[in-house]
Amino acid sequence: MVKPSGSRCSINDITEWESSTMLSGLQGKTVLVTGAAGGIGSATCRRFLDEGANVVAADLNTESLSFAESERVRRVDVDLRRAEGAAACIDAAVESFGALDLAFLGAGVECRAAMVADFSEAEYERVFDVNVRGMFLCSQAIVKHLQASGRSGGILMVSSIAGLTGNATTSIYNASKHAVVGISRCLAREVGSQGIRVNVLCPGMVDTRMAHSLEQSMGAASGLEATQVRAAVEAGSSLGRYATADEVASMGAWILSDEAPYCHGEIFTIGGGMMA
């Protein structure tokens, strides 16, 4: 449909055009976004709001959410490393919007760069508590809600290209992201016949705070400046740059929309050619 223009354009014309440019199946749905205060999380919340969805924005502290207040947003300050935290997200969705339909599970933490022999048990526990335990508990709570309500739905777990590869000095992070891929693939086998689609999204380096932290840490471990680390990463991408948070959000919205009804149990990478 051509975008309406000119003095004779009516509000109905504009509304019809705007509706035709939106992804199908998201308008009026309720989406849980975890890690909502992060770069990718905030961009994802904004994208789903633009698509007409209701958003439950969950993080440890949602005060820093970088998008406008809306009656279609419910903020939840929650610790997703505990089952009660995941349950609180479901409760918030039901209380505010009647039910939960979709989930973009993006909560995660990085770790410092170090050799396997040099990591502490505390560092291991911190990363796996958030990246694996939190992902598992959220997925479990969402599936139970959808099954109990007899609703179809979709879950998109955010892993990383690090979850498909091995890198020196980032073993704990890589291992946690490999676990996310494993959880998603097993869950997909379990619930697909119930109308619940499960997929995993694996971004490469995205221009966010986490990426900048990794640049500093990897540089310190290898005797390089952070700018040198970034240059090396960009050189490994065919596009020669990092992804933007908006690009990741757009792909996530498409996967969870009705535009991708046969995408289930899939691993989607968004790495600018890093995996080519």
Q: Nutshell version of this structure?
A:
This protein is an alpha/beta fold.
Please report the total strand number as a whole number: 7
CATH architecture: 3-Layer(aba) Sandwich
Instruction: Find the structural class using helix and strand composition.
Output: alpha/beta
User: Rg to the nearest angstrom?
Assistant: 19 Å
The CATH class, by name, is: Alpha Beta
Strand order of the largest sheet: 3-2-1-4-5-6-7
Q: Helix count? A: 8
Task: Tell me the distance between the termini.
Answer: 35 Å
The main β sheet shows up as: 7 strands, parallel
Protein name: SDR family oxidoreductase
Family: Belongs to the short-chain dehydrogenases/reductases (SDR) family.
Keywords: Oxidoreductase
GO molecular function, one term: oxidoreductase activity
What do you see in this structure?
By secondary structure, the chain is an alpha/beta fold. It has one domain (26-204, 244-270): NAD(P)-binding Rossmann-like Domain (Rossmann fold, 3-Layer(aba) Sandwich), CATH 3.40.50.720. Helices cover 45% and strands 14% of the residues. It contains 8 helices and 7 strands, in the order H-E-H-E-E-H-E-H-E-H-E-H-H-H-E. The chain has a 7-stranded parallel beta sheet with strand order 3-2-1-4-5-6-7, sandwiched between helices. Helix 5 links the parallel strand 5 (153-158) and strand 6 (196-203). It is globular and about 55 Å long. The model has no long low-confidence stretch (mean pLDDT 91).
